């Protein structure tokens, strides 16, 4: 029986871990390129969750059909936020930048609380109900769809960074901002593009999570912390580290909850981060944009 529970927790953890990886990847992208501690990333995820809920609740739209328009809106907001707001904070000391990011996170969280109240909302799209039974495993359609969306976005981002001219420009900016500027690259525009892509990742993670958990305003801060934890585990600024870190966190949480140790699951995650930090202070994959 215990091995069955471990198997269930492992599979569930891998599926949810892909969503955590996507969440952390957006945070790491803005950190690695724009050098911004993007704690408002959690608020972007929250607002995407509410947009998903109201798109389904008011107009009956399948949540995953909302991904393209939400990505366009999220990119525009992220780009504008970096270009006209966050850029101004880059000239102050790093501790002030972090305080600015926390203030923006809390402002967006409380705005969501004021707009949508503290009541919990849930997405129950009919098309995503049901499960696939594989032996002792029950895999919900919504969980599979959320993991598939996260995987698709992660692969697309990987291809963008590795094979496109924009990806090479972003990596050059991440490796040496002064050198990139000396070569004629518009670093301020690249910062804004990186933030826009970061918000796209947040929007996609929000769509995935809206189908899995009840939506409440407090999730903004919770997901901001989760993005930081996964990023520290995998390596600040490392995309591959975000993916591996997300899978590790997902498996730890999934197996712990399957075995009935749900209240201690978060503590186990922090213990893993502490052990990795002792062995490798820069995380599992260092601090480069890879």
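^ structure tokens above, recovered residues below v
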């Amino acid at each position: 029986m215990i091995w069955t529970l471990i198997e269930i927790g492992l599979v569930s953890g891998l599926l949810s871990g892909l969503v955590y990886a996507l969440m952390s990847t957006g945070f790491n992208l803005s950190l690695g390129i724009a050098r911004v501690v993007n704690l408002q990333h959690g608020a972007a995820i929250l607002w995407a969750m509410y947009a998903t809920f109201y798109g389904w609740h008011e107009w009956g739209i399948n949540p995953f059909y909302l991904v393209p328009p939400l990505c366009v809106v999220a990119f525009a907001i992220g780009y504008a936020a970096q270009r006209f707001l966050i850029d101004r904070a880059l000239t102050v000391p790093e501790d002030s930048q972090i305080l600015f990011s926390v203030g923006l996170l809390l402002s967006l969280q409380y705005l969501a609380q004021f707009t949508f109240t503290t009541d919990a909302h849930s997405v129950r799209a009919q098309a995503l109900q049901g499960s696939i039974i594989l032996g002792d495993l029950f895999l919900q359609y919504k969980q599979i769809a959320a993991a598939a969306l996260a995987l698709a976005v992660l692969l697309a981002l990987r291809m963008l960074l590795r094979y496109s001219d924009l990806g090479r420009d972003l990596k050059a900016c991440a490796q040496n901002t002064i050198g990139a500027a000396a070569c004629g690259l518009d670093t301020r525009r690249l910062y804004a593009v990186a933030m826009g892509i970061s918000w796209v990742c947040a929007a996609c993670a929000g769509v995935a999570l809206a189908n899995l958990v009840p939506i409440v305003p407090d999730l903004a801060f919770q997901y901001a912390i989760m993005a930081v934890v996964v990023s520290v585990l995998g390596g600040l600024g490392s995309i591959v580290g975000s993916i591996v870190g997300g899978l590790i966190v997902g498996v730890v949480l999934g197996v712990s909850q399957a075995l009935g140790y749900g209240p201690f699951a978060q503590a186990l995650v922090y213990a893993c981060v502490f052990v990795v930090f002792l062995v490798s202070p820069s995380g599992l994959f260092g601090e480069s944009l890879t």
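The CA atoms of residues 15 and 249 lie 11 Å apart.
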